[in-house]
Predict the 3D structure of the following.
Amino acid sequence: MSKEFQIGSLLLYKNNQLIAFNKPAGLPVQEDKTGDKALVNLAEIYCKSKLDLIHRLDRPASGLVLFSKTAGALVSLNEQFRERQVEKTYLAAVHEKPPKEEDTLIHFLKKDARNNRTHAFGEEQPGSKRAELSYRYLGSTDHYHLLKIRLHTGRHHQVRAQLAAIGCPIKGDVKYGARRSNPGRSIHLHAWKLRFRHPVSGEWEEVVAPLPEEDPVWQAFLKTIE
């Protein structure tokens, strides 16, 4: 296992109920058809116990993934997600600056399971699901633009599909219109922050996943988000 996949170095947060890791781009959260080792496998080895995944993160993306250690924590967090009480914040580096510096995007998304892709429509379609996110433009480098994104719904490939729909594909995301792929087929989408209520105390908790240190594009944006 390469250095960046040493699970202890990815740890962000833990207590008796929950544990969170900063997933590297390219590492699957759960086992997939490739048979590659997944984050949940490594996390269970680290914890020496079974874990339940609370939310998902696409394999090409990086950032925060939260697991529950207990059935009670799983029920509590699932309910918080269902009631949209959890605040999920992403960062995305895109090729084109969006038409507005901040906006709320509403689309109707339809999953194409055969091609593992989601199509975004402006109007409701048979079998589609409403998707909503808000973004804010944070700054630019010579080639890319940084967006902070708040998810209000959790749909398959939602951020990727909705940004592509407004002409702003994520860097490296050739599936959704980027001109070039990134090394290792990663994309510049990072699950940055998660804010939720602790399942026992009810107190608000916020976990932050630092940007990948080895990635020059992300590092160029560090001062933009400080």
